[in-house]
Batch of 2 targets.
Target 1
Amino acid sequence: MSTRIYIDGQVTGPEEAKISIFDRGFLYGDSVYEVLRTSRGHLVDFERHLERLQRSADGLALRLPDVAIVRSAIRDCLAAADNEESYLRIVVTRGCGEVGLDTSLAGGPTLIVIAKPLVLPSDEMYASGVAVRLVNVQRTSAKAVDPSVKSGNYLNNILALAEAKRAGDYEAIMCDREGWIAEGSSSNIFLVEGELISTPNLSVGLLAGITRQRVIELAAGLGLRVEETRLLPERLRDADEAFLTSSIRGVLPIALVDGKALRGGAPGKTSAAIMEQYQAFLSRVGQAS
Ligand SMILES: Cc1ncc(COP(=O)(O)O)c(C=O)c1O
């Protein structure tokens, strides 16, 4: 079990992996990235993550290395790390250059891949749910750093999470400037009211989570429909159940919103059914030849 990093064409250990202080990823968060996991050594939703990496890069007019290089870097890094299950982070920065905001100063992309042992939330968190808080920090507008771009510029989300942590909660839920719920600091959110499952519409301005999309498809397989819509904070506070999704967490039930317990429990009946479907999906990925 180990952490291995691909950088500058080499796979190394964490101590040897160094980046230039003139790299724009370091200086400005001028980068895009993806995070995913393995299931029995198979990357989960790999092609969807690669597609989103390309969309993020397009959104910032950032040039990616050739996809064959990205694929072989990932393969080499995972093989060298040799973990039972890995967490994988793919980062592409706009590269190094003279200090200055002008993107034409960048010399060309820097590719970094990090493979480390996968650490999931605790069993207790899946069994009893987590606490979330609707925070004052707003999700940036699509006219600023577009939330649909998975960029390395995460200060807004860091501030949102810090606000939730100060209140003793696990995850921050951000709204847009008009007050519509957008997403968590590193997760998407779903709520359940009776038979109805809802999640914020992408048009609010949020990351099109790979797990969010997978959950929408798995819910359909159960004969459940997920409405993508605009949701106000009251809907979440008054919901029967709610859950978070992300590639590393999968489906994580929410027990408390702003300190108040959701009446349907955590996980509630519907959340538990979706958690089970997601687990079955991970098993299918793990059995792929
Ligand atoms: C802001 C934000 N929203 C949502 C997610 C969940 O996305 P995914 O399911 O693709 O991991 C993440 C993941 O890191 C995130 O950073």
Target 2
Amino acid sequence: MMVLQDKIALVTGASRGIGLAIARVFAREGAAVVICGRKQETLDRAAAEIAPSGGKVRAVACHVGRADQIRGLVDTTLREFGRIDILVNNAATNIAQEPALATDEAKFDKMVEINLKSAYRFIQAVAPGMCDRGSGSIVNIASISGIRPQFHGMLYSMTKAALIMMTQSYALELGPRGVRVNAIAPGLIQTALSEYYWKDDARRATVLGQQPLPHLGQPAEVAEVALLLASDRASYITGQTMIVDGGRLLPWG
Ligand SMILES: NC(=O)c1ccc[n+]([C@@H]2O[C@H](COP(=O)([O-])OP(=O)(O)OC[C@H]3O[C@@H](n4cnc5c(N)ncnc54)[C@H](OP(=O)(O)O)[C@@H]3O)[C@@H](O)[C@H]2O)c1
């Protein structure tokens, strides 16, 4: 039997990068996966790419900064699939890669809305159903920047640190009701979001020089950890933040 046989999963920000890799692995393991991103066209391409992996994929456009669109996505999923067993809050942005003193309130609000409040809104919409059934798994994609601040990334780091604490807080309250809530903190992963750090040879070499595993992280390496946390194999794990960073945060060198 496949690990996620008959499970219904909702993965945000799954048109590319880490979210797409997670959706692909979930589909491979037998889940029906609902993916979202802002553009239907890009999502449809992603769904077509995932389809051969197995499972059922449904692409629904949703801007995670909009409460009404989040509600619409959750309602559509419940109407078409009946329930949500697994929620992955993955969509995020970084519009403020700059000195903290150069940021402004508009950027602050947008970063909180997209990276943090979206996860809160999704959990508030999805977790009650999980609690009623006494079963569910929520995975929030944080970052090592939420553990150690990213230089010129104050707003990003702040939202990810808060997401880790949100994870722990929900885990405390929802555990007794059968729902596990965990986070993943990736290090540098080769996606569009992080290309500033890996496209340039010198910058990439600097980061890789800080890792005992000296390769550039791939979305699939995060997806396999998301699979573990989402599945019943992680039945004794909640409130944790799994660091997937090639060992970069280890105090070495
Ligand atoms: N890459 C890294 O090195 C790294 C490291 C640590 C943590 N992370 C975290 O990993 C997660 C995935 O990042 P990634 O690197 O895979 O980024 P990515 O390649 O830029 O992909 C981001 C995904 O989110 C979607 N998205 C962005 N804004 C959205 C919005 N407002 N509403 C709905 N969907 C939205 C994008 O689709 P559309 O643009 O079509 O909407 C895309 O599917 C994020 O939480 C990120 O913070 C990444």
